[in-house]
C-alpha cells in the first residue's frame, strides 16, 4: 500500500470518527466492554472468552451487547474488537510503515525459548519490509508465472480422484481433507521447484509429506487450546497440551526443512521456480528455508479449508452447480468465470479461515467516536461483520451472485468482508491462493458431479483458523448431469 493511500485511509478514519456526531472524542477507557479483574490475571481470559473453539461466537454475542466496538484485555494486552465495516477499514490507516500483527502466544513463546528465526509471518521492522518487497514482486505484482504450475497440480489431483472412483456410482471421499492437504502442499512445493514433484519423488518423500500434513494439523489443534493459557505457565507446570504442541512445532520445522532440502538438492529447479527467483535476489539459503518453511505451514491450512468449505457449499446446491458449470463453459479459461470467483468470495465471507484479523496501532488513532492510544491491539471481527444484515442482504445465505457487478445491491459494505486484509501486511499469497482454489474448483466441476452427504448442518469452529465442526462428506461421481 502506498503512503498516499495510507493518508487517504487516515483522512477517512478521522472523518468517520470526528465528524459523524460533531462531539469531542471519548477516551479509550470509555469504550464499553466486559469487566476486568486484575487479581484474576490469566483467568480473566478463560472466564470472559470461554472455549477457544467458540471464540467467534462469544465475540459475536459481545458485539450484540456492546455494539460495533468494545474493549477488553487479552493476556494483559489492551484490545479492541471492531465489527463496524467503517471501523474495520480504519484499522489499516494506523498500522504504520512496519505493520505488526498478533501471533499465537504459544508460537511466539516457542520461538523465543529456542531462539528460532522464522519466516515472513514472524518477521518485523526492516527485516520484514525488505523480504516482503522481494516476495511482492513474485507473488503479487507478477503471479502469472505460477499459473501453469498450479493447473498442473490441480490436474494431478483430479486424475487421482478418478483413480479413487472405481465405478460410475457416487463415492464419498472419506479422506478428502487429507487429499486436499496433499494437493495444497504439493502446489507450494511445485511452485518452489518450478516443475512437478509428484512424478519425480519416491515413496519415502511421499511419506514425509503425509507426516507433515498430520503434524501441521496437530500444531493448529494444540496451539488453539493454549490461546487462553499463558504458554510460559503451561510450560512451567508441564501441561500435556503444551508439551504436545512443542513436540509438533519441532517436528514441523524439521520436516519442512527436510522436504525443502530434498527438493533443492536432488531435483533441478527450473528458472520459473520460486526457489531460483529468490536466489536471484541474493537471499541467503537460510532465509529462503525460513520463508518456505513457514509458507508451507501457514498457507496449507488456509487454502485447504477454504476449498473444503466451497466444495461443501456447492455440493449442497445442485442449482448452484449447474450455474457454475454454465459460467465455466462460457468462460473456459481459468479465472475468467465470474461466478466461480464470486463463489470463492462468498465462501470467504461466510466461512472466514481467519475470523479475526488484527494490527497493533502504530500511532494514536481515532476510530468511531473514540481515541485509541498507540500500542493497542485492534481486531477486526470478520465473522460478525460478514454476517451482519447491515452489510449484506440475507447474510446467512450462500449467494455468490451478490458479488457480481449487476447484483452489488446485496453488498451494502464490502469492507465488512476482508479475508486477506488490506495494507502493507495483507496476505502476500492471496493471488496464488485464489488461483489455486479457482483452478481446482473449475476442473472438479468440469469432470465430476458433487453431492453432500452431511445430514446435519456443518458449522464453523476455531482451531486458530475456521474449520468445520464435523467431517464434511461429499460424494463424487465421474459422470456429469
Automatic annotation (TrEMBL):
<dbReference type="InterPro" id="IPR001128">
    <property type="entry name" value="Cyt_P450"/>
</dbReference>
<dbReference type="InterPro" id="IPR002401">
    <property type="entry name" value="Cyt_P450_E_grp-I"/>
</dbReference>
<feature type="binding site" description="axial binding residue">
    <location>
        <position position="427"/>
    </location>
    <ligand>
        <name>heme</name>
    </ligand>
</feature>
<dbReference type="GO" id="GO:0005506">
    <property type="term" value="F:iron ion binding"/>
</dbReference>
<dbReference type="GO" id="GO:0004497">
    <property type="term" value="F:monooxygenase activity"/>
</dbReference>
<protein>
    <recommendedName>
        <fullName>Cytochrome P450</fullName>
    </recommendedName>
</protein>
<keyword id="KW-0479">Metal-binding</keyword>
<comment type="similarity">
    <text>Belongs to the cytochrome P450 family.</text>
</comment>
<keyword id="KW-0349">Heme</keyword>
<dbReference type="InterPro" id="IPR050479">
    <property type="entry name" value="CYP11_CYP27_families"/>
</dbReference>
<dbReference type="Pfam" id="PF00067">
    <property type="entry name" value="p450"/>
</dbReference>
<keyword id="KW-0560">Oxidoreductase</keyword>
<keyword id="KW-0503">Monooxygenase</keyword>
<dbReference type="GO" id="GO:0016705">
    <property type="term" value="F:oxidoreductase activity, acting on paired donors, with incorporation or reduction of molecular oxygen"/>
</dbReference>
<keyword id="KW-0408">Iron</keyword>
<dbReference type="GO" id="GO:0020037">
    <property type="term" value="F:heme binding"/>
</dbReference>
<dbReference type="InterPro" id="IPR036396">
    <property type="entry name" value="Cyt_P450_sf"/>
</dbReference>
Amino acid at each position: 500500500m502506498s503512503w498516499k493511500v495510507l493518508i487517504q485511509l487516515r483522512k477517512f478514519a478521522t472523518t468517520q470518527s470526528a465528524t459523524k456526531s460533531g462531539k469531542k472524542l471519548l477516551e479509550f477507557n470509555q469504550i464499553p466492554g466486559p469487566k476486568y479483574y486484575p487479581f484474576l490475571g490469566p483467568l480473566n481470559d478463560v472466564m470472559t472468552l470461554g472455549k477457544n473453539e467458540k471464540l467467534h461466537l462469544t465475540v459475536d454475542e459481545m458485539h450484540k451487547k456492546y455494539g460495533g466496538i468494545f474493549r477488553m484485555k487479552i493476556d494483559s494486552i489492551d484490545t479492541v474488537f471492531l465489527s463496524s465495516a467503517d471501523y474495520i477499514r480504519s484499522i489499516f490507516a494506523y498500522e504504520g510503515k512496519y505493520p505488526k500483527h498478533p501471533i499465537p502466544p504459544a508460537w511466539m513463546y516457542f520461538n523465543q525459548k529456542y531462539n528460532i528465526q522464522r519466516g515472513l509471518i514472524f518477521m518485523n521492522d526492516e527485516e520484514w519490509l525488505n523480504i516482503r518487497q522481494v516476495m511482492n514482486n513474485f507473488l503479487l505484482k507478477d503471479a502469472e508465472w505460477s499459473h501453469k504450475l498450479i493447473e498442473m497440480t490441480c490436474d494431478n489431483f483430479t486424475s487421482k480422484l478418478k483413480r479413487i472412483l472405481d465405478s460410475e456410482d457416487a463415492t464419498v471421499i472419506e479422506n478428502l481433507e487429507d487429499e486436499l492437504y496433499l494437493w495444497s502442499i504439493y502446489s507450494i512445493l511445485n511452485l518452489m521447484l518450478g516443475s512437478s514433484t509428484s512424478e519425480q519423488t519416491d515413496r519415502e518423500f511421499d511419506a514425509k509429506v503425509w507426516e507433515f500434513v498430520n503434524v501441521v494439523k496437530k500444531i493448529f489443534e494444540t496451539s488453539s487450546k493454549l490461546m487462553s493459557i499463558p504458554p510460559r505457565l503451561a510450560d512451567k507446570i508441564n501441561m500435556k497440551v503444551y508439551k504436545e504442541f512443542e513436540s509438533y512445532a519441532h517436528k514441523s520445522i524439521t520436516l519442512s526443512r527436510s522436504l525443502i532440502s530434498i527438493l533443492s538438492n536432488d531435483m533441478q529447479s527450473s528458472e520459473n521456480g520460486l526457489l531460483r527467483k529468490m536466489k536471484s535476489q541474493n537471499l541467503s539459503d537460510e532465509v529462503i528455508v525460513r520463508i518456505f518453511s513457514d509458507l508451507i505451514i501457514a498457507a496449507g491450512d488456509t487454502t485447504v479449508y477454504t476449498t473444503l468449505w466451497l466444495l461443501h457449499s456447492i455440493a449442497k446446491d445442485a442449482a448452484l452447480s449447474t450455474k457454475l458449470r454454465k459460467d465455466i463453459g462460457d468462460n473456459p479459461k481459468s479465472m475468467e468465470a465470474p461466478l466461480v470467483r464470486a463463489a470463492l468470495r462468498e465462501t470467504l465471507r461466510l466461512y472466514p479461515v481467519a475470523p479475526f484479523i488484527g494490527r497493533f496501532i502504530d500511532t494514536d488513532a481515532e476510530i468511531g467516536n473514540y481515541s485509541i492510544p498507540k500500542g493497542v491491539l485492534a481486531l477486526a471481527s470478520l465473522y460478525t461483520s460478514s454476517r451482519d444484515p447491515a452489510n449484506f442482504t440475507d447474510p446467512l445465505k450462500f449467494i455468490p451472485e451478490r458479488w457480481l457487478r449487476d447484483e452489488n445491491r446485496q453488498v451494502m459494505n464490502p469492507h465488512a468482508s476482508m479475508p486477506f486484509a488490506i495494507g502493507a501486511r495483507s496476505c502476500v499469497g492471496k493471488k496464488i491462493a485464489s488461483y489455486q482454489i479457482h483452478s481446482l474448483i473449475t476442473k472438479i466441476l468440469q469432470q465430476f458431479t458433487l453431492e453432500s452427504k452431511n445430514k446435519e448442518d456443518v458449522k464453523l469452529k476455531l482451531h486458530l483458523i475456521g474449520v468445520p465442526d464435523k467431517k464434511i462428506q461429499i460424494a463424487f461421481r465421474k459422470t456429469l448431469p
